[in-house]
Amino acid sequence: MKRTAFTNQLLPWLLLAPQLIITFVFFLWPAAQAIRQSFLREDAFGISTQFVGLANFKALTGSAQYLNSLQVTAIFAICVTVLSMGVALLMAVAVDRMIRSTSIYTTLLVWPYAVAPAVAGILWWFIFNPTIGILPYLLEMVGYDWNHMTSKSDAMILVVIASAWKQISYNFLFFVAGLQSIPASLREAAAIDGAGPVRRFFDITFPLLSPTTFFLLVVNIVYAMFDTFSVIDATTEGGPAQATNILVYKVYFDGFVGQNMGSSAAQSVVLMLIVIVLTVVQFRYVEKKVAY
């Protein structure tokens, strides 16, 4: 492979400068500020600042609301990841089996990814609205009284569906690309040997999709823990009774609404560490089972 040699040593750094500046301003600097603030106690206006060490982190371990938020986040992240990846894989397999109109169906299924998370949340809020929504009306016909404003389980179902619907298109694209990269001769050989469609999928197709599945697993967990703030804010605002108050929304609520900057910063640091640990564990242990 031919390597490019720069005669001017400054030129590579100039080419990298825009990306480095963006990374520093929008990622490294805010992270450093959050770590610094997690050791401080500040008033709402930032006038009085007091160093308290690990007091903010210690307070989190004894907070029932924070421990509840941890549990809610775990349930929410697992449900969103499983639902979005499962539905996307099912759709990708269905499209891959089609001979005609594949590009048309692919285009239609990708459109939801262009919808902003807040818009997706409002869309599903209207669909599930107990007063004007179509789905509560249909559910009432079969004897189920839907009300996500008072029912914790209904609220969780709403935010999981809204968040997963937004991510299905992204997962679908990668699964379709992964399926199309699998040689058709392998599945044809298995069919000749008498393997049915289900057997061919689990013995040949799905193992060969393991790199794509592993990548999407990491992406979807990070998405569920970070990028679903807009969905929660547009639908339930963490309610009812903290039933959908995931960690990223609690960071916002405690910091910007409750004006408890120290606790909010400590929560953001813990959330960042959780995501880092999950990612490391996935790459350290889960990736060993991936067949590239």
UniProtKB/TrEMBL annotation:
<feature type="domain" description="ABC transmembrane type-1">
    <location>
        <begin position="70"/>
        <end position="282"/>
    </location>
</feature>
<dbReference type="Pfam" id="PF00528">
    <property type="entry name" value="BPD_transp_1"/>
</dbReference>
<dbReference type="GO" id="GO:0005886">
    <property type="term" value="C:plasma membrane"/>
</dbReference>
<protein>
    <recommendedName>
        <fullName>sn-glycerol-3-phosphate transport system permease protein UgpA</fullName>
    </recommendedName>
</protein>
<keyword id="KW-0997">Cell inner membrane</keyword>
<feature type="transmembrane region" description="Helical">
    <location>
        <begin position="155"/>
        <end position="177"/>
    </location>
</feature>
<keyword id="KW-0472">Membrane</keyword>
<dbReference type="GO" id="GO:0055085">
    <property type="term" value="P:transmembrane transport"/>
</dbReference>
<feature type="transmembrane region" description="Helical">
    <location>
        <begin position="74"/>
        <end position="95"/>
    </location>
</feature>
<dbReference type="InterPro" id="IPR035906">
    <property type="entry name" value="MetI-like_sf"/>
</dbReference>
<keyword id="KW-0812">Transmembrane</keyword>
<feature type="transmembrane region" description="Helical">
    <location>
        <begin position="107"/>
        <end position="127"/>
    </location>
</feature>
<keyword id="KW-1003">Cell membrane</keyword>
<feature type="transmembrane region" description="Helical">
    <location>
        <begin position="208"/>
        <end position="226"/>
    </location>
</feature>
<feature type="transmembrane region" description="Helical">
    <location>
        <begin position="265"/>
        <end position="286"/>
    </location>
</feature>
<keyword id="KW-1133">Transmembrane helix</keyword>
<keyword id="KW-0813">Transport</keyword>
<comment type="subunit">
    <text>The complex is composed of two ATP-binding proteins (UgpC), two transmembrane proteins (UgpA and UgpE) and a solute-binding protein (UgpB).</text>
</comment>
<comment type="similarity">
    <text>Belongs to the binding-protein-dependent transport system permease family.</text>
</comment>
<dbReference type="InterPro" id="IPR050809">
    <property type="entry name" value="UgpAE/MalFG_permease"/>
</dbReference>
<comment type="function">
    <text>Part of the ABC transporter complex UgpBAEC involved in sn-glycerol-3-phosphate (G3P) import. Probably responsible for the translocation of the substrate across the membrane.</text>
</comment>
<dbReference type="InterPro" id="IPR000515">
    <property type="entry name" value="MetI-like"/>
</dbReference>
